[in-house]
């Protein structure tokens, strides 16, 4: 994508950019048949004010920052054009007031959007969502910066244009200053452009952007699953060169790899496929909360082998549903799936519906999914070694990655080097790893030592650069030193915002200007706020030594003999379920009977060997599902059982 033009006003660039969570809710993955037509509650906005547009609290789309705190601001404003932005910035600058920009849906994990203190100003781009100009001859499109990618790609398609997968920046426009606010012009050949490309919001506010597009095209997608991951280290180095839009999903605990073979084809190629990714669809609140409650039970009781079964069934369901691909917008009939770029390149089904029946999985208004998201780029020259180290972890602790596999495994996407000062210095692979997070500070997290070791290996051993909008604090330790042009960025920052009005404590820390990102407090290592160094960081009884990466300082938590933790009867399980929020009687019966059933069979060695057979588990719980869930009467659950039987 070419950014030909971008209006900056003391500037900010803001990226706008299930697993079956339980054996008991194995059915939820098959519930996609129903969820496709269920309407959902759109995500909550990140700014909430108690007095009109004043006295505000800012959070993110997940309802929690890495340190679990919230941010405050005195006021929020909703400009609709550039003149209003200029006015708001001018007034704030006169009194040296901190300023931050938020989008309609704030999905950054770190505190990029927090103004320091409680007197700051929030500028929302919610109403900056208009298309300003489309030039089909020059193949450019100018939009306000509050427009979401979903809106943008559809507007471009109407003009016969498409946003390609790889950003290519060509210029940023701007104007003159008046003493309190500058409208800067940065064009092709201007060195400042390389700072503007990835600005972290510390340069100012963007008002509009002009993108260089391409003629609309189609894509051809096929998912291919391998029986093992033996050659992943070698194949990962070349797969991205072979397929323009290809990516890789690695399921370490299952030793499987899913390759997305995804290439551009002419627009004349037959096909009207649509990608509505399964994990981003809306799900009924009751199922999301029940699944989360059961996952909490797994964590509390140490049911690691049950999680492995969950992961296998989840993978089977995702593959059966082609990850949400359809050949015609309604159903999947087989590969390849061919469709227009705007129907394939991104997916956000939970944003499109507006009846209050379903939610996106991580909506903070319900007790649904709650997780960490580690995203970092390993240089391509070091990818094979990183993959081999992860395999060593799997070999030493086979069940330790089942929790990662439950959340879709490790997603590997290809990125190219960028001239941006805070962009990628060399070609690499983005690794995206999602895993369970307790809603309680210092709450249990099975094999937290393993995910922590992966994080620390990536950051310290392989010099990974973190995704600026994801990750826990540990991933950002000394991050500015990893960018060869980091000092050049700081020089531009000093020129654009000498008063530091668009900076905050977090951005100063990650840019190496004021302290570091480590937060020392009791149990900080469990939250990824520090590296485990002593018992105060880790908690009594925990060690600080890596399994593969000897220099890693880790919490010694993981799977343990939890047989003594199990209650001896169903009544005990019901008590546990009540304690984690399962209030419905019928759901208590369903969960407790199924969990108890699996535990009892495991202890009586009915499940033999190191692996559990997903098909066997499905058949063994069908009776429980049908009796405990379907007795409520005819409805969507019938389709679930039909899918299981199929």
UniProtKB/TrEMBL annotation:
Transmembrane segments: none annotated. GO terms for molecular function: D-arabinono-1,4-lactone oxidase activity; FAD binding; L-gulonolactone oxidase activity. Belongs to the oxygen-dependent FAD-linked oxidoreductase family. Pathway: Cofactor biosynthesis; L-ascorbate biosynthesis. InterPro entries: ALO_C, FAD-bd_PCMH, FAD-bd_PCMH-like_sf, FAD-bd_PCMH_sub1, FAD-bd_PCMH_sub2, FAD-linked_Oxidoreductases_BP, GULO_Plant, Oxid_FAD_bind_N. It catalyses: L-gulono-1,4-lactone + O2 = L-ascorbate + H2O2 + H(+). Residues 69-258 form the FAD-binding PCMH-type domain. GO terms for biological process: L-ascorbic acid biosynthetic process. This is L-gulonolactone oxidase. The lineage of its organism: Eukaryota, Viridiplantae, Streptophyta, Embryophyta, Tracheophyta.
């Amino acid at each position: 994508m070419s950014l030909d033009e971008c209006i900056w006003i003391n500037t900010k660039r803001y990226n706008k950019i299930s697993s079956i969570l339980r054996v008991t809710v194995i059915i939820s993955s098959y519930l996609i048949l129903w969820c496709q037509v269920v309407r959902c509650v759109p995500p909550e906005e990140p700014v909430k004010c108690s007095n009109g547009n004043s006295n505000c609290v800012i959070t993110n789309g997940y309802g929690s920052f890495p340190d679990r705190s919230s941010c405050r601001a005195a006021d929020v404003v909703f400009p609709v054009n550039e003149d209003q932005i200029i006015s708001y910035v001018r007034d704030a600058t006169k009194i040296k007031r901190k300023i931050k920009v938020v989008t309609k849906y704030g999905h950054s994990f770190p505190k990029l959007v927090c103004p320091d203190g409680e007197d700051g100003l929030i500028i929302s781009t919610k109403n900056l969502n208009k298309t300003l100009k489309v030039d089909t001859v020059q193949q450019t499109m100018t939009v306000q910066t509050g427009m979401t990618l979903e809106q943008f790609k559809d507007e471009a398609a109407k003009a016969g244009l498409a946003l390609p997968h790889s950003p290519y920046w060509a210029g940023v426009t701007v104007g003159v200053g008046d003493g309190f606010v500058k409208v800067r012009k940065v064009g092709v050949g201007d060195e400042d452009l390389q700072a503007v490309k990835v600005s972290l919001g510390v340069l100012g506010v963007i008002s509009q952007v002009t993108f260089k597009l391409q003629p609309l095209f189609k894509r051809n997608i096929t998912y291919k699953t391998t029986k093992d991951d033996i050659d992943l280290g070698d194949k990962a180095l070349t797969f991205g060169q072979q397929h323009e839009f290809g990516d890789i999903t690695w399921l370490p605990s299952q030793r499987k790899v899913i390759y997305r073979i995804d290439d551009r084809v002419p627009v004349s190629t037959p096909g009207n496929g649509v990608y509505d990714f399964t994990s981003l669809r809306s799900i009924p609140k009751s199922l999301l909360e029940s699944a989360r409650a059961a996952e909490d039970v797994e964590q509390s009781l140490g049911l690691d082998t049950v999680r492995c079964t969950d992961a296998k069934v989840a993978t089977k369901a995702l593959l059966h549903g082609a990850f949400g691909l359809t050949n015609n917008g309604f159903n999947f009939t087989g590969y390849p799936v061919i469709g227009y770029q705007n129907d394939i390149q991104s997916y956000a089904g939970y944003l499109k519906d507006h009846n209050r029946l379903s939610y996106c999985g991580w909506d903070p208004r319900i007790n649904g999914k709650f997780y960490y998201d580690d995203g970092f780029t390993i240089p391509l020259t070091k990818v094979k070694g990183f993959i081999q180290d992860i395999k060593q972890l799997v070999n030493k602790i086979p069940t330790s990655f089942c929790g990662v596999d439950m959340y879709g495994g490790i997603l590997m996407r290809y990125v190219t080097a960028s001239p941006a000062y805070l962009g990628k210095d060399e070609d690499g692979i983005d690794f995206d790893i999602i895993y369970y997070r307790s809603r309680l500070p210092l709450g249990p997290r099975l094999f937290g030592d393993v995910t922590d070791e992966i994080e620390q290996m990536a950051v310290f051993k392989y010099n990974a650069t973190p995704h600026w909008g994801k990750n826990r604090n540990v991933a950002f330790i000394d991050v500015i030193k990893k960018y060869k042009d980091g000092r050049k960025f700081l020089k531009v920052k000093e020129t654009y915002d000498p008063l530091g009005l668009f900076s905050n404590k977090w951005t100063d820390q990650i840019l190496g200007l004021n302290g570091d990102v480590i937060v020392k407090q009791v149990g900080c290592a469990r939250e990824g706020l520090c590296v485990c160094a002593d018992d105060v960081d880790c908690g009594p009884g925990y060690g600080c030594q890596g399994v593969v990466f000897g220099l890693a300082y880790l919490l010694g938590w993981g799977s343990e003999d939890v047989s003594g933790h199990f209650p001896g009867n169903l009544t005990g399980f019901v008590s546990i379920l009540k304690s984690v929020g399962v209030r419905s009687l019928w759901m208590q019966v369903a969960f407790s009977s199924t969990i108890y059933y699996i535990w009892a069979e495991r202890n009586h060695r009915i499940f033999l060997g190191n692996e559990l057979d997903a098909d066997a588990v499905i058949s063994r719980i069908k009776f429980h599902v049908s009796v405990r869930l379907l007795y409520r009467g005819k409805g969507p659950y019938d389709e679930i059982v039909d899918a299981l039987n199929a």
